Each structure stands twice: as structure tokens, then as C-alpha cells.
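Students often ask why inverse folding is considered easier than folding. One informal answer: many sequences map to the same fold, so there is more than one right answer. In these notes we will look at a single instance of the problem. The structure comes first.
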């Protein structure tokens, strides 16, 4: 039974349409880092591709949003739908590590990311940017993305910038650090044959 759990690909697909965005996403938690991403926001595409690559997740994402307004709905709603897809891919969470953390350096920047796939959504975000925009993406939307994702994936997520001055590096380190922490949290452990909680469920 344990071998079957390890061999089965854990995938989640979600389609969501509102008056502001239409989003289709699929994620394979047991992938190889391949991605096909189109959100209409170039820098956001770059961040999500980095997330897929460094987490070894296969990610397909297509977003059509009201970018004539601004990038807010596109980025926030992507967080919602990606969080829902991760929840679907995890299923009953039996056998996963549950916790994950990673400290990621990127030149002058150092970021800490820590995750508990507890089913209890919570975000602690201690990150400051000195620029309003990186490319076509508002830096304030990075927090909104992770907030929406953590809520809809039911995860406790801590993100902290320990050092950093280059805004591109800070943003990229956040997405890559998050990817590595999530990869650890969703990893299967053959020593865990149930949900890793004294309550018996997550």
C-alpha cells in the first residue's frame, strides 16, 4: 500500500471563472519542474516558473484577467486557485512530512520560508520592498498572492526577509524559498503511514 501511495502522481486541477478573471490551473506535486504559464503579467510568470522549477512541481496555468484595471485581481485570484489545486493534489495528506522550511540565499538577499500543512490558514509576512513595481507587478501584490494561497491551501506560512536590497532578488527569493519549503512539506515519508498529527486528521 505504501508503494502505491508513493507511485501515484498527486495532481490537482481547478477551473474558476468570475467577472474579473478566468483561471485554469493544474499542478503535479510529483513532477520535474516543468511549467507552462500565462498570466499576462510577465514578472509574475517568471516568479511562478521559478516556483515550479525549484519545487519540482509540474505547473500549467492560464489566466485571463482584467489587466486594464490593474494586476490585483489576476494575482490574488491566481493565489486562490493555486491554493485550491494544491489542496486537491494533497488529498487526505496521509504520509506527507507536513512541515517544511528553507533558508534561501540570492546574492545579497536571504529569505526564510516555513510551512505547516495543518489545515489552519495563517500568514506571517515580514518582507519589505523599496520599489512599488518590479516589471509589471506591484510588489504589494506579493503579500496578497501568498495570503490568498495560504488561505485556500489551508497552510500556515511564514515568510521573512532576513537581508536584501534588490527588489527583484527579494521577490525571487520569496518564491523560490516558498517552493523549496513546500516541496519538503508535501514529500512522502515511508515511515509515516497515517496523517502526521496526534489528532488523526489535518
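Output (designed amino acids):
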Amino acid at each position: 500500500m505504501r508503494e502505491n501511495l508513493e507511485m501515484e502522481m498527486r495532481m490537482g486541477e481547478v477551473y474558476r471563472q468570475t467577472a474579473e478573471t478566468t483561471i485554469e490551473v493544474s499542478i503535479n506535486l510529483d513532477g520535474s519542474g516543468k511549467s507552462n504559464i500565462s498570466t499576462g503579467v510577465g514578472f509574475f510568470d517568471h516568479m511562478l516558473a521559478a516556483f515550479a522549477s525549484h519545487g519540482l512541481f509540474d505547473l500549467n496555468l492560464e489566466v485571463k484577467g482584467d489587466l486594464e484595471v490593474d494586476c490585483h485581481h489576476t494575482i490574488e485570484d491566481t493565489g486562490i486557485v493555486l491554493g485550491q489545486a494544491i489542496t486537491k493534489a494533497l488529498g487526505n495528506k496521509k504520509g506527507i512530512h507536513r512541515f517544511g522550511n528553507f533558508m534561501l540565499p540570492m546574492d545579497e538577499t536571504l529569505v526564510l520560508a516555513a510551512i505547516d500543512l495543518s489545515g489552519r490558514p495563517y500568514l506571517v509576512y515580514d518582507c519589505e520592498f523599496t520599489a512599488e513595481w518590479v516589471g509589471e507587478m506591484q510588489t504589494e501584490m506579493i503579500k496578497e498572492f501568498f495570503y490568498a494561497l495560504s488561505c485556500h491551501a489551508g497552510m500556515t506560512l511564514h515568510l521573512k526577509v532576513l537581508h536584501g536590497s534588490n527588489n527583484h532578488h527579494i521577490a525571487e527569493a520569496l518564491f523560490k524559498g516558498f517552493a523549496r519549503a513546500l516541496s519538503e512539506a508535501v514529500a512522502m515519508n515511508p515511515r509515516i503511514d497515517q496523517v502526521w498529527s496526534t489528532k488523526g486528521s489535518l
